[in-house]
């Protein structure tokens, strides 16, 4: 294969990957816990945008449960953000597993 063509293809893929990274910053996923009592919205790049709490989970005598619910919602959102990023990257890489 022509080395120049390979370099051009690599550069095109690099540009496409950068575009996907930029787009992920604008896409959002939402993680939940406690049957929707806690929701965490983050970008496809795992940056937290919002945390919403239902009034019934806010109990000053049971902070530990609220902490657990927030942790679970963040983890759920992070998993969804990772899955979204993987899905978007596979569109560009044709399924090759490349780090991002």
Task: Set out the fold topology.
Elements lengths: L2 H22 L3 E6 L4 E6 L4 E6 L9 H31 L7
Antiparallel strand pairs: 1-2, 2-3
Structure description:
The chain is α+β, with helices and mostly antiparallel strands and 100 residues long. The protein has a domain of 51 residues. A 3-stranded antiparallel sheet has the order 1-2-3. The longest helix has 31 residues. It is rod-shaped. 16% of the residues are buried.
Radius of gyration: 19 Å
Distance between the termini: 27 Å
Note the main sheet: 3 strands, antiparallel
Residue runs with pLDDT of under 50 for 5 or more positions: none
Helix and strand content put the structural class at alpha+beta
Helix content: 40-55%
Shape category = rod-shaped
* Proportion in β-strands: 15-25%
**Mean of all residue-level pLDDT scores:** 91
The strand count comes to 3
With strands numbered from the N-terminus, the spatial order across the biggest sheet is 1-2-3
Q: Please provide the ordered H/E string of secondary-structure elements.
A: HEEEH
How many separate helices? Answer: 2
């Amino acid at each position: 294969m022509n080395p120049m063509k390979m370099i051009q293809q690599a550069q095109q893929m690099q540009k496409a990957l950068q575009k996907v990274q930029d787009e992920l910053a604008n896409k959002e996923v939402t993680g939940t816990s406690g049957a929707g009592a806690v929701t965490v919205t983050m970008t496809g790049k795992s940056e937290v945008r919002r945390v919403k709490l239902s009034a019934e989970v806010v109990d000053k005598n049971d902070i530990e449960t609220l902490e657990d619910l927030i942790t679970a919602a963040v983890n759920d959102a992070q998993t969804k953000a990772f899955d979204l990023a993987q899905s978007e990257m596979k569109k560009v890489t044709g399924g090759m597993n490349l780090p991002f």
